[in-house]
Amino acid sequence: MTENPANAPLRPEQADVRPGTQSEAEAADGLPKRTDPRTFIVQALQTLPNMVLPIFALAFAMRDNGPFAIPVLLGLAALFIILSSVFTFIAWRRQTYRLGESDIRLESGVLSRAARSVPYDRIQDVSLEQSFIPRLFGLTMVRVETGAGGADEIKLAYLTNEEGAALRELVRELRDEADGVVKAPAASQEASEAEDAPVLFAMGPRRLFVFGLFEFSLALVAFLGAAAQQLDFLLPFDIWDFDMWQGLVAGPGERIAELGPISQALGAAAAILTLLVIGFVSGLVRTFTREWDFRLERNPKGFRRRRGMFTRTDVVMPVHRVQAVRISTGAIRHRFGWKSLQLVSLAQDAGNASHVVAPFAKAHELTPILKVAGFPLPPRGLDWHRTTASYRVLSAIFGAAGYAILAGIVVGVTLYLADSRYDWLWLVAMGFAALSAFAAVRQLFLWRVERHALSGSHLYKRRGWLAPGFAIASRVKLQSVEIARGPLGRLFGYVTLNLGLAGGSYSLPGIPRAEAERVRQALLASMIETDFSRLVR
């Protein structure tokens, strides 16, 4: 047996039993270990950015309270940092984790102790995540995901990069043994993490730049507005004083009115252009920080995805745990041929049950990924089915009714006011009327393009009009099939077929009852072919 490197986690059977140290039962459960001692330093440093703004606000508010106000404030801030570091150190000291024969356990808490245990056969994924400050110290966070999210997960913050990678591999081996998966040869295990593993998809700076242009966002404008609302007490004026703003705008407004319509149009164009520049810059910054050095590789354990500039994530998604895939796009992206691919599995990806494995790709770039995942694109000759016409007509009526009611309300208010100063409300009413017509027309086009079909091993659903996409589910991996019918469905003869996925949901609304029964019987026949509860572990 090869020796473990320094500080590498031990397998349960490698736990050393020494007289007077622990019992044989304790040794069988593995040795308790702590995270890296520098953890409490990193966690203390991570609190500093959250303190900068409050300290600045208090310093500004206390600027007229004497010469000792600022030093006292800084002393209190330093005392808070010291106390926070002390409590963080105690919490780190009291937290241990251990690898047992059947589970991984985490014990934490100072005054109130908590013990969390996750069986290996419930583990969906073990991922590594590095935010900016831990990366400076060479540390990483190990996340043991169960698919349920929240309290069912175990997060070990922080381990060294070497310890984190070794722990991830060891937990995966123990999980595979619990699942009855044949262990891969050592050479294959080493190749699984090699840098020259087959790359299925990657994005360089040029691709990220184009991607960022489609990620238009006015989040910066919203952030500045929220900051102004929260910190309005620091400003020398009331930001919500309408009369003050009206007075400030009155003078320039009169001068702009004297410039003529061409100058007014140029001023409006400049304002719109400024917002566009802010939106594009925000999208570029967010895209580069989140997707920097995006790489999707294929190794013996599944898909390995790495991305991130300041927060670096390293996630491995086993192929056999992928239950469905989603191919999506946007109304503008579709015109340029850009698509996104998500894998639906039990493991969580930033609070979402779908792993984005190709966020910005051409159709031909998705083909090798889909082939490895076992979810091919729809073959030719499938028998496609639409929703019922009555379902689409009712959807059009209800979708258009809301905007039509709003348009009627605006028209009524405008007629009641009968003031030329509010003539712009007619434009608002026309906008709602246009949205009402669009909602009705949209349902007509959806009836023409949305459809579903069954192949021998998959269920396909085509969705979307301006931004068409596909949802592909494995017939064998579906968990349940439900036929739901509401009052309107009973009246007009359509139902909704709800299909259960352990990592998400899949539904076919508005289909005829006979078609729903046919699909359910076909899916049930596929689902009972393999009894997963009787598999040898």
Descriptive overview:
This protein has 537 residues and is of the alpha+beta class. Among the domains are: 12-195, no CATH class; 219-289, no CATH class; 389-449. The protein is 46% helix and 23% strand. The strands form four sheets. The protein has a seven-stranded antiparallel beta sheet, sandwiched between helices. A six-stranded antiparallel beta sheet has the order 13-12-11-16-15-14. Strands 1-2-3 form a three-stranded antiparallel beta sheet. A hairpin with a 3-residue loop joins strand 1 and strand 2 (103-108). The chain is globular. Mean pLDDT is 78; it is low at 1-7, 15-29 and 184-194.
Low-confidence stretches: 1-7, 15-29, 184-194
Please give the largest β-sheet.
7 strands, antiparallel
| Computed Rg | 30 Å
Rough shape? globular
Average pLDDT metric:
78
Q: Major sheet: order of its strands?
A: 6-5-4-10-9-8-7
Helix-strand layout with pairing:
Blueprint: H1 24-28, H2 39-61, H3 69-93, E1 96-99, E2 103-108, E3 114-119, E4 125-130, H4 132-136, E5 139-145, E6 154-160, H5 161-179, H6 186-192, E7 199-203, H7 205-214, H8 219-230, H9 242-259, H10 261-291, E8 294-299, E9 302-307, E10 312-317, E11 324-328, H11 333-336, E12 339-349, E13 352-361, H12 363-373, H13 389-417, H14 425-449, E14 451-454, E15 458-463, E16 469-474, E17 480-484, H15 487-492, E18 494-501, E19 504-512, H16 513-527
Antiparallel strand pairs: 1-2, 2-3, 4-5, 4-10, 5-6, 7-8, 8-9, 9-10, 11-12, 11-16, 12-13, 14-15, 15-16, 17-18, 18-19
Helix pairs in contact: 2-3, 7-10, 13-14
